[in-house]
Amino acid sequence: VTDQEVQRTPTATLAYSLVGDRLHLVEREIERACNSEIALVRRHSEYVVQAGGKRLRPAMVLLCTKICGYMGDDDVKLGAVIEFIHTATLVHDDIVDGAEVRRGQEAANQVWGNQLAVLLGDYIYMRSLAMSVELGSLRLVEILTEATSRLLEGEILDVSSTGNVQLTDKDYLETIDRKTASLFAAAGQASAILADATPEHEQALASYGSNIGMAFQIIDDLLDYSADPAHFGKKVGADLREGKMTLPAIYLLRDGEKAAQEHFLGCFGDPELSDDDLNAVVMA
């Protein structure tokens, strides 16, 4: 890649191009990990895990191990583990939120109901744990399980704060630090450990991953108010309809005009909110 090509290419596109061949191997590893002896479990797992998505977390693993000079093959398995953990949380998220669409297709809870979807999410979690053990490093397993625990703590904070319009930006940032950034941080740190990098590099990649995760969640929450549903992969306005306070809403209630605040509060938590009312909130 020349300097001129780098200048013309969006950062994300360039980053994916650096690890595209390895990402194909991650997809094959994901297919292998979905291969249950029980056909029903295999089909359901494939429906959820192979539904696409950005594969941002596996790409980060591949990039971080590449930076550290890793030359082995376990970066592919680690990327698949991280993606499985992430996917399991999405399945459970959709049950809690009553989501209808995920990654451009019907959410698992809509296809099979909540009972089966809960079990499917649990199964994907357990597959991720089994795959992490295959990496042969107790420290990696500890990092990944600790990240999963922090992620679930964030989910609990998120659910428990539903409907709370008094939520502060500090509360919000603490929640997303656990709910989203923890897995990105683990992806960076685990990559350094896999590559036998120095403690300084390990900490640097953990910090980098955490910052990427924080930025990712803030942008995702902003897009929930402004994105094109055809490209977003899920229904826009879900946070407003579900009564979830994210940063755009927090700043509106803190700094917005009174009329806009009153309109927002009248729409907040209304599951039947129309697209016109959503647009009015956005325009305010």
UniProtKB/TrEMBL annotation:
Sample GO molecular function, one term: prenyltransferase activity
UniProt-listed GO biological process terms: isoprenoid biosynthetic process
Pfam families: polyprenyl_synt
Keyword Magnesium (UniProt): yes
Assigned protein family: Belongs to the FPP/GGPP synthase family.
Protein name: Polyprenyl synthetase
Reported cofactor(s): Mg(2+)
Keywords from the named record: Magnesium, Metal-binding, Transferase
Keyword Magnesium attached: yes
Matching InterPro entries: Isoprenoid_synthase_dom_sf (IPR008949), Polyprenyl_synt (IPR000092), Polyprenyl_synt_CS (IPR033749)
PROSITE patterns assigned to the protein according to its UniProt record, in alphabetical order: POLYPRENYL_SYNTHASE_1, POLYPRENYL_SYNTHASE_2
